[in-house]
Design brief:
Elements lengths: L7 E15 L3 E8 L3 E7 L1 H7 L8 E10 L2 E11 L8 H17 L7 H13 L5 H15 L7 H5 L5 H12 L12 H18 L11
Parallel strand pairs: 3-5
Antiparallel strand pairs: 1-2, 1-4, 2-3, 4-5
């Protein structure tokens, strides 16, 4: 007789990247977790009725219990907090942070933990609560690219583009920015626009992600 595979129960902490409605009012969540990296989690209508839907939204920080069976993650209970409220964002700000979500899904393999990426997405999204959300999204994207091995400041990609000294200095400052500290660099409008264009072109060329954003201030 074939032995049935037992389900495993695990507790996880993660940042919601995207949410999709499935089936009979269930939800499929893409979550970047501290210990497992990217995972996709299903939560049923009954679980949502029990715990509410307020934190089943992008850029909520969730503490969850999941049942793992046949490589399927089923969320059985959860609690959370909003790192920032997407409902209070402008269309452009929402688009910028959806871009960050798309970037995370491409740069980091499923079930592969990355503590540096975890710290960046957590701190970047939390900073967006009180600071300019578009600038925070740009810094988060730049730092995620760097820790994943796609460094826009390396000589080879830079040699293919002509960026000004001011844009290069700004790019360095954004890449090295420590979350939680005041940004002391001067963000000039022209240099900032140049950095945004360069990052968009870099991501399209090196990461094969065709999703232009403005990161407008």
């Amino acid at each position: 007789m074939k032995q049935l595979q037992q389900s495993k129960i695990q507790n996880k902490e993660g940042v919601v990247l995207s949410v999709k409605k499935v089936g009979n009012k269930g939800r499929l969540l893409h979550v970047f977790t501290k210990d497992s990296g990217n995972i996709v989690v299903f939560t049923s209508e009954s679980t949502i009725k029990k715990y509410g839907s307020g934190y089943l939204t992008p850029y909520a920080l969730l503490r969850i219990t999941v049942m793992i069976k046949d490589e399927l993650f089923i969320m059985t209970q959860y609690e959370g907090q909003l790192l920032f409220n997407m409902l209070q964002c402008s269309y452009k700000e929402v688009n910028n942070w959806y871009f960050v979500s798309a970037l995370m899904k491409i740069l980091f393999a499923p079930l592969d933990s990355d503590l540096l990426a975890w710290q960046i997405i957590l701190q970047g999204a939390f900073s967006a609560r009180i600071h300019n959300k578009s600038v925070c999204a740009l810094i988060t994207s730049l730092q995620l690219l760097t820790v994943s091995g796609f460094n826009p400041l390396e000589q080879e990609p830079l040699s293919n583009y002509s960026i000004s000294k001011e844009a290069y200095v700004l790019l360095q400052s954004l890449q090295k920015h420590q979350w939680g500290e005041h940004f002391y660099g001067v963000i000039g409008k022209s240099a900032y626009k140049e950095v945004v264009i360069y990052i968009n072109d870099f991501i399209e060329s090196y990461c094969d992600l065709h999703m232009k954003v403005t990161f407008e201030v």
